[in-house]
Design goal:
Chain lengths: 319, 333, 277
Amino acid sequence: MADTSSTSGGLTLPQQRQRAAFWFLAPMLFALFCVAAWPLGRTIWFSLTDTTLSNLYGGKFIGFDNYLSMRTLSSGKVIWRGTLVDPAWWNAVWNTVRFSVVSVTLETLLGLIVALVLNAEFKGRGLVRAAILIPWAIPTIVSAKMWSWMLNDQYGIINDMLLRLGVIDQKIAWTANVDTAMAAVLLVDVWKTTPFMALLILAGLQMVPRDIYEAARIDGVHPVRVFFKVTLPLIRPALMVAVIFRMLDALRIFDLVYVLTPNSAATKTMSVIARENLIDFDKFAYGSAQSTLLFAILSVFVALYIWLGKVDLAGDGGK
Amino acid sequence: MAKIELKDVRKAYGAVEVIKGIDLDIRKGEFMVFVGPSGCGKSTLLRLISGLEEITTGDLMFDGERVNNLVPSKRGIAMVFQSYALYPHMKVYDNMAFGMQLAKSSPEEIKARVMAAAKLLQIDHLLDRLPKQLSGGQRQRVAIGRAIVRDPRVFLFDEPLSNLDAALRVQTRLEIAKLHHTMDQVTMIYVTHDQVEAMTLADRIAVLRDGRLEQVGTPSELYERPNSIFVAGFIGSPKMNFLTGRFAAAHGCQTLGIRSEHIDVVADGPWQGAIVHAEDLGSDNYLFVEVGSDEPLIVRRPGKLTARVGDRLALAPMDGQLHRFDAAGAPIR
Amino acid sequence: MNVQAVAGRIAFYALVAVIVVFSIFPFYYAIVTSFATGTGLFEVNYWPRQFNLANYETVLSGRTFPRNIFNSIFIATMTVVFALFLAVTASYALARVRFRGRGLLLMTILAVSMFPQIAVLAGLFELIRFLGLFNTPWALILSYTIFTLPFTVWVLTTFMRDLPVEIEEAAIVDGATPWVIITRVFLPLLWPALVTTGLLAFIGAWNEFLFALTFTSSETTRTTPVAIAMLSGASQQEIPWGPIMAASVIVTVPLVILVLIFQRKIVAGLTAGGVKG
């Protein structure tokens, strides 16, 4: 490439292509810088200041006080303040983690079942696949509204069904009740996202060669055993990727909770509480600190997952 | 139209060298075939000449001009790919005209050149079709037509026949040979792993092995005077017989080579054994005779098959047709 | 057939039925409700009893909802156009050109697509205020780039990678520059992929809520998800379920139709963005 004895002044093919690649990538990278890197940096900066919504440029640097600060009163009593000792924040963290783990687990298991059903040959398979795409296509807000109508305490069809079936003996305010609000959120999320999971798993299943099953059947292996010994290991990579995508989605959940169970401490997630502080409560800097923490938690999670994934890959390669 | 010189051309991907220093002159108007087993670097060498891959070190000269750093379109080459590589969304006419359109030639000139090439290849009735409406053979003609329209100094073929079925392959091979006669000023370089294609098409053949040139010469030179065991074994069908041990020692060499048509059936000869298998090809027949060497000797006999499996034969090499090789695989002459 | 096989068959179809009913029922019930008015709204009906378009009239003759629909269409369309425009060239570079740091760049783009939106909310808020875009459609078009662009780049890169190398090489020999290769050779081959990616990005933008809620402040600049979330009656106790369901059906039916038409392509796009990641 560094050959200057060339008789022509033009660029070599790789040079020409790399230069073009640079100009092709530059606009996209600039756009991503503007909407991702720069705002993220500013959010982190705001979290270290006392900026308010009404005075975005008047903030002063206050170090980590939004996260944790210690003040000793004249009486000698020590007061800790900041997000890290805020019970509301830890409640939100707990809610988010609980929601994510339970919803992703349920969606993976149900998604696996649906995918196995769709992977079988039967009449009307196309229709079933179309049917399960419907929840996925419905906007989250709309599904939240539909379900909050169905879960309505007075006129909701769910209460009606359960009463008729004798499962419950009085109407339940599913979304308002502290004990059931999380279950309601989980129900709607599972309804809406299981199809996505099922389709990803189905794609993995369809990559498993058919003759493996036939060989197993000829050998007389029980179908359940085939599933655990053959199918599951083969679709594991697809499953791992699907799970992490869903997990990241679940950890940042906002809209469903915000609309289905507004202002319920039982379901408030990290994103909800951060936005509340940022915009509604005029604690802009405090909300920024919580946003930053959410970002940090997600980053650690991703790093851990990739790291553990690698360990696993090495284990597989050694077999 | 171009004389091509390669001077110590090398290609490395990172630390792995795949072309390990090639010196080669290709004459103006010559039909040169690169042949060798898969992975020998023949396709890479073609791509270095085309400019699709960058030469790591060494010089590539077209008519005395160093073209290492020229982009493919400035080298005056045209290339026919194994998969035809036609633009699927363009009609045949546009496929052939695309290069000239990009070069901003006048519409009249483009039309004249495309029509001329289409006539030459008898595809002028297909110009309005899309590639997917053509048969494999027709697609390959369009790919060749597209190359002709570029009016190249050098024509490059990258295994152009390997996607065609056997019958079509022979027919298209003939057409490429005819094309070479019509365009006798254009240098052609042709890559194949099929030594029959190489023998039938080439003015000269370059045999590659493991990134190095094994031998360059006319088909008959390679056939009659192979420079190594490798070339001797690679060129010719059926494969040359190789004898080792006491068979070779009798002639003062490590390995003794003899082509199947150079073995006579005699009343009493140095090699004796039973026929273990016989193949009748109609015009001639192959006898596989177990004489006690590593593999049965293949003997090619003209006419109909008369011998039977189990018959014992005595064999002798024809005069002057033995190839003797030393321990390193080099010929002893 | 023995009894066990028949029982298995019945169980299988029962499972299929459960899946289908569970998937479709909420949407079905929303439609049923949207046609009910007055007291009909407050009786639980499993089957449609009324066919009354009053709720639709209420929503569509309202001052703002048609405007909200227009906003959503405009914003989602512009978002898709920008994302595809930037992504096509970028994905060519990522899929087809060898350069140092390519793998790292792809990982970065994937990482951005996983960004929690709340983490950039404060910074974006400031940027949008600074640019004077607050409470305009452009605020949303700009901010939606954060999730549509990485996604389109990623999916188009996987599609672009699958195009045959020899076609590109033939174009190079023909003298095509990278720009010509993209516009005259690859784009015509990529139409199906563009439709899929565009559609998925459109759905993403159409459904977005957090940014739309935060970066708009007046009823006329809202998008439909925010408008539906904010639909309220005269008092807190009196939620207008009929109109809400009508509005929900209005914004969902086009999506459902699109999704059903492009079913196969969407599945391909989702898996290209997911599994191969």
